[in-house]
Amino acid sequence: MKAQCEMELESKYQLPQKLLALSHAKTWEKAKLEWVDINNFWWEENYCLCGHSIIENCEIVNTKNGSSAIVGNCCIKKFNKQLNSHLLFSGYRKILKDETKSLNATLINWCYVKGILNEEEREFYMSIRNKRKLTLLQLNMKIKINLRVIRFISKR
Question: Domain-by-domain residue ranges, the chain?
Fold first, then answer.
């Protein structure tokens, strides 16, 4: 059986090869630019496209050909730091523990892009997310939105 370091070294190089095979582009530098959207994310024991075991799963979608792939949160950071998948997970984790907590800006914007929030809800949430004292109406609206986000993400 191979040592853990050797397996990690081999799997590290599988991600570019496997994503390139699913891409329209023919070079890794160009192919990385095609994978710019996290379609969904969830916690589940699984395997990343690179071959290592993961718990934080991200489904990414190729903007050129519509291909999708499951990639671990750590691997996403290695090839596209702008996706901020760690902020999606941390924001979601926070409201799962306490539905009165606030979503972070990254998760609010992701929810807006995915159609979970409309423009008015997005603007509302951005305006109250850092406030410590909310009116009862604001708190109820925030909880209602948080529960919708939880239902959407956990429906996978």
Answer: 4-83, 87-154
Residue type, 43: W
CB atoms within 10 A of CB 18: 16
For residues 100 and 53, the answer to whether their CB atoms sit within 8 Å is no
Let me know: does 47 contact 13? Beta carbons within 8 Å: no
Global pTM reads: 0.82
- CA dist 133 and 25 (Å) reads 50
* Mean pLDDT computed over 15-43: 91
The highest-confidence range among 29-38, 74-83, 116-125, by mean pLDDT, is: 116-125
The band of 55, judged by pLDDT with boundaries at 50, 70 and 90, is very high
pLDDT at 79 over 80: no
